């Protein structure tokens, strides 16, 4: 019996040593992963909130609801908040000119105030913008000091015709943007697109190659394209580029002339849905884990495996993505 107990204690001591050795190497690996992150990064993880807003025909009401919900999201620890496409107006070619504003204007002043009051980064969905007689579908981004740090005009206009289901032509009233849009935060670099922009894999790839670790797309897919492609496209962009992808839709309104699918979503770099709304108004949250992102890129190192000698994706504004 004594011999048996001695053997037990000996085995336990041996296993303890093995545990300590393994813990040491796991710690070293964790440190190495952290070193892969940008030098400017002060946070390994931060909370993102996505507001799925119920949009009405009354602009003042939409702005008031947005202010209230952004404040609620900030109160839950969110450092960045994302609003939906056309959050201040109904979505439709017949509405764009009526609700259009210059920047700065009524809606962007509210966004600036809300960002500053809550000390957050606010991705202001999109609003119809007017400049020099042209209309754009535009996303304004504000920093914690209330300053506008980026303005993204929708690059790819939503012109589709699915016989018997839906026909929509944004180009009947809107003009396209002509620039890529990425902004820096203390957390990570963020690439911005609007709705139909998500269908173009090249844009996401260029954003990723510039160092973006989060892609945000305010969007309003409909009852035809929504169930078919909304989640699929987000997961594809996330896996293709090993980034987080977040989308913000207006809440569904069955009485509207254009019915949004809803289902605002956040997807991680493994392609998993980590947070998702239903069709109704809601706020969803996701903790953006940049160490996890680095681990995914280490495990499946497609960034270093690309065949630059065989193919490349070029930006007309300079630079390329292999």
TrEMBL record:
Cytoplasm is among the record's keywords: no
Superkingdom to which the source organism belongs: Eukaryota
GO cellular component: mitochondrion
Keyword Transmembrane: yes
Catalytic activity reported: 2-oxosuccinamate + H2O = oxaloacetate + NH4(+); 2-oxoglutaramate + H2O = 2-oxoglutarate + NH4(+)
Transmembrane residue ranges: 6-26
InterPro entries named among the record's database cross-references: C-N_Hydrolase (IPR003010), C-N_Hydrolase_sf (IPR036526), Nit1/2_C-N_Hydrolase (IPR045254)
CN hydrolase domain mapped to chain residues: 46-290
Molecular function per GO: omega-amidase activity
Keyword list, A-Z: Hydrolase, Membrane, Transmembrane, Transmembrane helix
Protein family per UniProt: Belongs to the carbon-nitrogen hydrolase superfamily. NIT1/NIT2 family.
Protein name: omega-amidase
